[in-house]
Design brief:
The protein has 415 residues and is an alpha+beta fold. It has 12 helices and 10 strands.
Length: 415
């Protein structure tokens, strides 16, 4: 999208967060977007007037900063949105997110309005503007955005939190936020009936054929991306565990195997609503001016759906934590998660700490990252960026080799 889009004022009044009448929306910046979507910033003037007539100075309430997220309406953007279900985020905000807000609080951003159509790929979202200079903190900036990749290391966008806390505290805070999301939706079978959630086509006989087609298309992308990326990784000699895991896991992949594993997870194992894109650039730490407490807000819910809860936890550390930092804090990180989860009502006997620790080390989170390694191979990423991710996965597999499957087969998945 090259032209500056107009922010529809009626979109701002669909949700409960704008209590006054919007009158004008002034574009201030195009923010970082992605392959499918664009993100813009606006200043919106509001007043006490119920009509859209220009307000007088006595009526004026003030300005509101709004972020406007919408489809990149070009051939790639629309095709990508339809294929990957990018309208899911808007449907989530307009739907079950409102049911979850009382339990999750700051975890879901304030959304003024959201509209989406999965079939056409169209979506638009108006939400609160989160900025580093207003007491927000991106957890770590470790190259998980394709643009402006910083040097390896932890690079907070704002150091207010770290002025009084260490990095272990930070990871534990984020872990407890994940536990809040998962505890609120723990083994909630109603999630499986929400058609726009990721994973909905993969469970139940009624959706079997649609699920198979979607899964086969996704795995074809993974195999094609891996075929492109594998040779230079192999030539470097730096990634033997990653290559062995990808080769074995792709060779063993099948729709029946995946569906059996997913059905077992839903029927017998722990599942919950997972964020699905749980990395540092989607995690903001904010100070609640009312309570003075630090809270976490998660952005970009475009792949939200029912999955193994530990997939989010593993994804974050592989995405963002340098191996030495991860090794130092990962046990306490999972412990903080599990303690918050069980304090929120999940039965500690049904999901023990040992269960959580094992699933973090060798479970669905590794499978999610193997999927991403394949998909990232489809793009012409700089060697430094793709190599960064490959090295992160290699180090994680090496550190947890004692619990690796004997046949090196992990369940590659996009959940």
């Amino acid at each position: 999208m090259t032209d500056t889009p107009a922010l529809p004022l009626d979109l701002l009044t669909e949700g409960p967060f704008l209590s006054h009448t919007p009158h004008t929306a002034t574009h201030t910046a195009q923010l970082a977007g992605g392959f499918v979507g664009a993100l813009h910033a606006y200043v919106v003037s509001t007043s006490r007037k119920e009509s859209t007539e220009p307000p007088t100075s006595d009526d004026s309430i003030g300005d509101v900063m709004v972020a406007y997220k919408l489809l990149n309406d070009n051939e790639f953007g629309r095709a990508g949105s339809i294929k990957h279900g990018s309208a899911r985020e808007a449907l989530f905000y307009a739907g079950i997110a409102n049911e979850l807000r009382p339990a999750l609080g700051f975890l879901i951003p304030a959304v003024y309005g959201a509209r989406g159509v999965m079939e056409s790929g169209d979506y638009e979202i108006a939400l609160e503007f989160l900025a580093p200079d207003t007491a927000f903190l991106s957890v770590v900036a470790m190259g998980n955005q394709f643009k402006d990749m910083p040097a390896p290391g932890v690079a907070p966008a704002h150091d207010a939190y770290l002025a009084d806390h260490n990095l272990g505290d930070l990871f534990s805070l984020v872990a407890r936020a994940a536990a809040k999301l998962h505890a609120a939706t723990w083994r909630d079978a109603s999630l499986l009936k929400v058609p726009y959630l990721r994973g909905a086509p993969y469970y139940g006989d009624d959706e079997a054929e649609a699920g198979r087609v979607k899964w086969e298309n996704v795995m074809a992308d993974v195999a094609r991306g891996w075929a492109s990326a594998r040779e230079p990784l192999d030539a470097s000699g730096l990634y033997p565990r990653l290559i062995a895991a990808m080769d074995a896991s792709l060779a063993a992949s099948s729709w029946d195997r995946f569906r059996t594993a997913y059905a077992k997870l839903i029927d017998d194992g722990p599942f919950a609503l997972g964020h699905g894109d749980f990395h540092g650039h989607n995690v903001f730490v904010r100070n609640d001016v009312g309570s003075g407490e630090w809270e976490v807000t998660l952005l970009d819910w475009a792949v939200v759906g029912p999955t193994h809860p530990m997939a989010d936890l593993t994804q974050l550390v592989i995405s963002d934590a340098p191996p030495a930092l991860r090794r130092e804090h990962e046990h306490a990180y999972v412990r903080a998660y599990w303690e918050a989860l069980t304090a929120a009502g999940v039965d500690p006997a049904a999901f023990t700490f040992d269960d959580a620790w094992l699933a973090y080390r060798a479970g669905w989170g590794v499978g999610r990252w193997l999927w991403m390694i394949g998909v990232l191979g489809l793009f012409s990423l700089p060697d430094a960026i793709y190599g960064y991710f490959a090295a992160q996965v290699e180090a994680f597999l090496a550190d947890h080799a004692d619990v690796a499957p004997a046949d090196n087969v992990y369940l590659i998945h996009c959940l």
